[in-house]
Amino acid sequence: METLIPRWGTLAAISLFSFLPVAAGRADTPYHFLKEIAVGGEGGWDYLALDSAGRRLYVAHATQVVVIDTDKDAVLGAIADTPGVHGFAIAPDLERGFSSNGKEAKASIVDLTTLKTIMKVDTGANPDAIVYASGPREVYTFNGHAQSATVFDATTGKVVATIPLPGKPEFAVYDPTANLVYDNIEDKSEVIVIDAKLHQIVNTWPIAPGAEASGLALDREHHRLFIGCHNQLILMMDSTTGKVIATVPIGQGVDANAFDPGTQLAFSSNGDGTLIVAHEDAPDKLTAAQNLVTQKGARTMAVDLKTHKVYLATAQFEPPPPQPPGSPALPPGRPKIVPGTFKILVYGR
């Protein structure tokens, strides 16, 4: 996942997905805008992580992790000194959290009570996705530039394994029942499966008809992965066999996916300003349920499994510079963020 500054294509998908039909029988599904939480500051952002039991949302924002109270929907504090932070993993059983600090090739181990850093752990270059494996009490960082995964003990910080990866890693999830870690390999359009006991890749699955996957979510009960792909599809894959079961169209610039077992809804947040909601009607059936217009750049998100609210991150952007008359059109680039406008959008049912 790219960090700090969002990137997307045209906004044509907004009008397309705004008028797609909602699946029959989903009258209780539609989400709507509830509020905006002002965060401010400068710089971009990346993953959001939500602790539904602890009532906190953790937002990776430039050089810190912003902490939001999800009962009050207000900023509670921040975890400092996380340069180029990509993501945050939560270990409720240890009252600890872990950040992947992309610009210093380290992970921070954080006391969730004080929000203070306990120690830092060396990782491979540009740690991006980060996940806590609760079974062995280990943390995995997926290192984008190094194309590796660093595994360390969540209590001591000791590195216990370095796993070579076949390409550029993206989002990862852990299945505690199977004791497996899943990760998207974006540039190979594959999903890898890591045995958390052996610290080895035990399966590699192609994601066709999807391509260049970023977001990843898991339905543990039905053994289904939800994979957000840059060719504008969300896939439902069998997490035991790698078989793609169903697909639903999504917007441009997907960066995050989520699954809510309480509602059986899967979500895709896209940089073009759309939130696509799909319903798992059955383990072999996924249908489009809602196509919601959010805001440009709102490509990362988290879902509160208690309240079923969806939280998305975005900001305001400066208009692109004017082009000289007769000059060739420039490819889509990274718009500049207006300082002080970073915010969290809250949607509910």
Describe this structure in words.
The protein is mainly β. The chain has a single domain, classed as Methylamine Dehydrogenase, Chain H, CATH 2.130.10.10. It has one helix and 28 strands. It has a four-stranded antiparallel β-sheet with strand order 1-28-27-26, with no helix packed on it. A four-stranded antiparallel β-sheet has the order 2-3-4-5, with no helix packed on it. 50% of the residues are buried.
Q: How widely separated are the two ends?
A: 28 Å
What about the largest sheet?
A: 4 strands, antiparallel
Instruction: Label the CATH architecture.
Output: 7 Propeller
Secondary-structure element string: HEEEEEEEEEEEEEEEEEEEEEEEEEEEE
Counting structural domains, the number is 1
CATH class: Mainly Beta
Shape call:
globular
Label the structural class: mainly beta
Please give the structural blueprint:
Blueprint: H1 12-18, E1 32-38, E2 45-51, E3 56-61, E4 64-69, E5 74-79, E6 85-91, E7 96-101, E8 106-111, E9 116-122, E10 127-133, E11 138-143, E12 148-153, E13 159-164, E14 169-175, E15 180-185, E16 190-195, E17 200-206, E18 213-219, E19 224-229, E20 233-238, E21 244-249, E22 254-260, E23 265-270, E24 274-282, E25 285-293, E26 300-303, E27 310-314, E28 343-348
Antiparallel strand pairs: 1-28, 2-3, 3-4, 4-5, 6-7, 7-8, 8-9, 10-11, 11-12, 12-13, 14-15, 15-16, 16-17, 18-19, 19-20, 20-21, 22-23, 23-24, 24-25, 26-27, 27-28
